[in-house]
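2024-03-11 09:14:02 INFO worker-7 job=invfold-0412 stage=load source=structure_tokens
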């Protein structure tokens, strides 16, 4: 591992207790569909017991789409909040590239190759 101190620094981070649940029953039918749509697009192993933040994202997307359909102006603060939540859930192209859910102990193949000891055998 290249930076073992990073793993030690994360040792006491909270551990998710369960995966993201189904949408709350009090959501409007359109919001429930948005919940299903967005949850299917979440990168693997990103959202767990984060229903409240995900619900806010769903409601913001719902409001955005309603305004869009009615040709109404969008609310700047809501757009900023929606984009921030998309970022936090790793749902933008740039943020998806930052999501790492693999084992922290797994070594990068290039790093393994470069750190391998050279063979003492001479080529024939």
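2024-03-11 09:14:09 INFO worker-7 stage=emit residues=124
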């Amino acid at each position: 591992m290249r930076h073992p101190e990073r793993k030690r620094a994360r040792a006491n981070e909270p551990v998710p207790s369960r995966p993201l649940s189904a949408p709350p029953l009090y959501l409007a039918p359109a919001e429930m569909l948005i919940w299903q749509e967005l949850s299917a697009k979440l990168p693997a192993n990103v959202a767990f017991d984060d229903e409240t933040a995900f619900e806010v994202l769903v409601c913001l997307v719902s409001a955005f789409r309603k305004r869009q359909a009615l040709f109404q102006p969008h609310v700047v603060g809501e757009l900023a909040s929606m984009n921030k939540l998309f970022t936090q859930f790793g749902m933008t192209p740039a943020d998806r590239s930052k999501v790492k859910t693999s084992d922290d102990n797994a070594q990068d193949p290039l790093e393994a190759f470069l750190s391998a000891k050279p063979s003492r055998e001479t080529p024939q």
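2024-03-11 09:14:09 INFO worker-7 stage=report msg="Residues 51-69 form the longest helix (19 residues)."
2024-03-11 09:14:10 INFO worker-7 job finished
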